[in-house]
Amino acid sequence: MLIPSRTKYRRVHRLPYEGRSRGNRELHFGEYGLQAKEGAWITANQIEAARIAMTRYMKRGGKVWINIFPHMPLTKKPIGTRQGKGKGNVEGWVAVVKEGKIMFEISGVTEEVAREALRLASHKLPVATKFVMKESKGE
After folding, report:
1. Nearest alpha carbon to residue 87 among 14, 17, 18
2. How far apart are CA 7 and CA 36, in angstroms?
3. Is 23 inside any structural domain?
4. What is the mean pLDDT of residues 4-18?
5. How far apart are CA 7 and CA 4, in angstroms?
6. Across the chain, where does the E strand assignment appear?
7. 13, 83, 124, 134: least CB-packed within 10 angstroms?
8. What are the residues whose beta carbons fall under 8 Å from the beta carbon of 78, sequence distance 6 or more?
9. What is the maximum span of the chain, computed from C-alpha positions, in angstroms?
10. pTM (2 decimals)?
């Protein structure tokens, strides 16, 4: 599971996921990618489940790039405690994904395999997604 090795602060303010992604809106590494059509917080478990779904379908062929990392801690107060007395303990880590961000990239497989692998991965994520391809240089 993905977690930061160290952070400057244990707890941070919540980051918004509204609006469009300012960077990483086009493919940089692979030939095919999965683009978010809406914003959300994506947990480390969801990223790992999507990665496993892709690599299993591709039968460990091709290469996968994960362009998101869960940097933001989510906190939660224990059940049965009263309000106040400070912020709760860290429960998990999430990645802030905004609309238009390329989350996963694939290369080294055919388009049909990439399409199906990314479709399976999209079912593990809490956002609507879109399959994108790299534009060919000849056009």
Report:
1. 14
2. 26
3. no
4. 86
5. 7
6. 32-36, 40-43, 63-66, 72-76, 89-97, 102-107, 129-133
7. 83
8. 88, 89
9. 64
10. 0.89
